[in-house]
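Entries read chain and fold; for instance:
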Amino acid sequence: MAFAPGDQTLASAGVDKVIKFWDVPGSQERQQLTGHRGEIRCVTFAPDGQTLASAGSDHTISLWDVQTARPLREITGHDGDVRSVVFLPDGQRLVSGSVDKTLRLWAMPSGDSERVLDAHQAAVLCVACSADGTKLASASDDQTIRLYDAASGDPGATLDWAHRRGLPRGVLAGR
């Protein structure tokens, strides 16, 4: 799930392959989007609230026009379920994490691949971006959280966690 900027709209998605927009103040479903061929694992709004990115088990990321509820483009490149996506604060790039053990940075709005980061030994469960857009973080089934420079993709620190039962999806906070 994700709130749009302004907190008036909530997007939800799931195993039914449907994205729903909810009017938060009225607690009413406003719109449904369809197009994914598999379960939808995550959704995120661009910082300006005009674009929604969704990703899932069909190995794709879909970009949607929030106003018209129409698909803008489908982004391919991952070789496994895409588990997490987040826009950088300037809205010019999107980062995704996948069970294929990689993070990918995508140029927006073209969806062109800018960089592939394969620093993990197992599925990437979630990704996050710092509020100033300079750092990325990823958490993986390999029991690590890795930090990266967002501009260059250069790896920074590796944090080994001691969570006994793993790290649930979406545990990294931030944009």
